[in-house]
Amino acid sequence: MSDIRRIAVNTGGGDAPGLNAVIRAVVLSAEQLGWEVVGINDSYDGLFEDDGVVRLDRRSVRGITHLGGTILGTTNRGNPLNWPVEHPDGTVTYEDRSKRVVDLLREHEVDALVAIGGDGSLAIAQALSELGLPVVGVPKTIDNDLASTTFTFGFTTAVETATDAIGKLHSTAEAHERTMVVELMGRTAGWIAMYAGVAGTADVILIPEIPYEIDAVCEKIEERYSSKRSQFAIVVVAEGAYAAEGSMKYRETAEGQQRLGGAGKFVSEQIHERTGRETRELVLGHLQRGGGPNAYDRLLALRFGAAAVRMVQEGRFGTMVALDPPNVHAVPLKEAVAHIKTIPLDSDVIQTARSLGICLGDR
Questions:
Q1: Helix (H) or strand (E) holding 118
Q2: What does the buried/exposed string (b/e) look like for 17-42 if buried means 16 or more CB atoms within 10 Å of the residue's CB?
Q3: Whose CA is closest to 216, among 239, 243, 192?
Q4: Does domain 158-289+344-355 have CATH number 3.40.50.720?
Q5: Domain boundaries, the chain
Q6: Is the CA virtual torsion 266, 269, 274, 279 positive or negative?
Q7: pLDDT digits 0-9 by tens, 139-163
Q8: 359 bridge partner residues
Q9: In 249-287, which positions are buried (b, 16+ CB within 10 angstroms) versus exposed (e)?
Q10: How far apart are the C-alpha atoms of 170 and 69, rounded to whole Å?
């Protein structure tokens, strides 16, 4: 499109390995077309701050492909569709600032936005698109729960981190004849837990897609201990996993927000109470987000960034780039954020787990 002169890029929501690679690909691809690129700091917050919109060029993105985090910063607060406004009396109300976001981008002479984020960030991008802002989305989440794309960048790096941790737990669990319970991220989808659990040769994997029965879990553990060669057990629990007669576990943050957490601790306590086995739990937490992307995620992130610029060039706005192996193509943003992608119960990875004798908490 000959009228494109300047595009913006931002990163929103939780960080994921590969964000910087996407930014670099966007900048270099845009420069090839003679376009300028600006970055918005901290999702959309930079639009409301002095010096929050920065010029990006080849020099500013040099050597960042392998780095974790994001040079633009990110946040999962400050949603412009529901912006918090604090009043003198201490009360807080919320207002829709999406129209103001569009106006500010136009004031910065931005012709199109490349929005990198998960379901929440891309839902914001979809709303801005409906207001007339030319937007192309890039799917980012370690949870791999975005619809319309086979994989999101950051996922396989998170799986590698989790698999490595599970592998290290084997030696200490065996040395002390303990049952080790490790809680992994994933929100309401079990992708990380299932992939890392199978790769890490866990004995039990509990995911939100399959509500578990604790008796089935304990039977598997006792089966392990009945063998003289296997006096330990490894249990992987997705943070959104829950018992068939229970519900997901939440904890309250310092700000009063409810966040998933405590599933691993609950399972660990239940195993100890029912079996008497010495049990320890580990919450891997934000380690799964940290560090640089592996080779797969670097390549996928670079492919997504370059594809996003091509979509802008072709005028294919209101879309998200998506992986449909072996190619990257565009899908409607509205379709991409319509629902969370969970693991199909008939998927090959679940069938593999069952074939290997891994307990999934059901009978």
A1: none
A2: bbbbbbbbbbbbbbbeeebbbbbbbb
A3: 243
A4: no
A5: 6-153+293-325, 158-289+344-355
A6: positive
A7: 999 999 999 999 999 999 999 999 9
A8: 204
A9: beeeeeeeeeebbbbbbbbbebbbeebebebebbbbeee
A10: 29
Q: What pLDDT is stored for residue 92 in this prediction?
A: 87
SS3 content of the chain, % helix, strand, coil (to 5): 35, 20, 40
> How many C-beta neighbours within 10 Å does residue 242 have?
22
- Tell me, what's the pLDDT at 3? 87
Per-residue pLDDT tens for 293-338?
999 999 999 999 999 999 999 999 999 999 999 999 999 999 999 9
List alpha helices for the chain, DSSP H: 19-32, 98-107, 119-130, 155-176, 191-199, 214-225, 263-275, 295-313, 333-336, 348-355
Of 8, 318, 22, 317, nearest to 141 by C-alpha is 22
Annotation says 143 is catalytic: yes
What would the 3-class secondary structure string for 317-340 be?
CCEEEEEECCEEEEEEHHHHCCCE
Q: Taking a C-beta distance cutoff of 8 angstroms, is the pair 7, 37 a contact?
A: yes
SS3 state of residue 95: strand
Q: How far apart are CA 236 and CA 217, in angstroms?
A: 11
Overall fold of domain 6-153+293-325? Rossmann fold (3.40.50)
Distance between CA atoms of 202 and 181, rounded to whole angstroms?
A: 10
211-239 residue pLDDT tens? 999 999 999 999 999 987 789 999 999 99
pTM above 0.85, yes or no: yes
State the Cα–Cα distance between residues 273 and 36, nearest whole angstrom: 62
Give the HSE-up count for residue 318: Cα atoms under 13 Å, Cβ half-sphere.
Answer: 9
39 has which bridge partners? Answer: 9, 54
Tell me whether the omega of the peptide bond preceding residue 326 falls within 30 degrees of 0, making it cis: yes
**Separation CA 280–CA 69 (nearest Å):** 30
Intrachain domains 6-153+293-325 and 158-289+344-355 with the same fold? yes
Q: Which member of 143, 145, 203, 297 is catalytic?
A: 143
Residue 59: how many other CB atoms lie within 10 Å: 8
Element at 232 (helix H, strand E): none
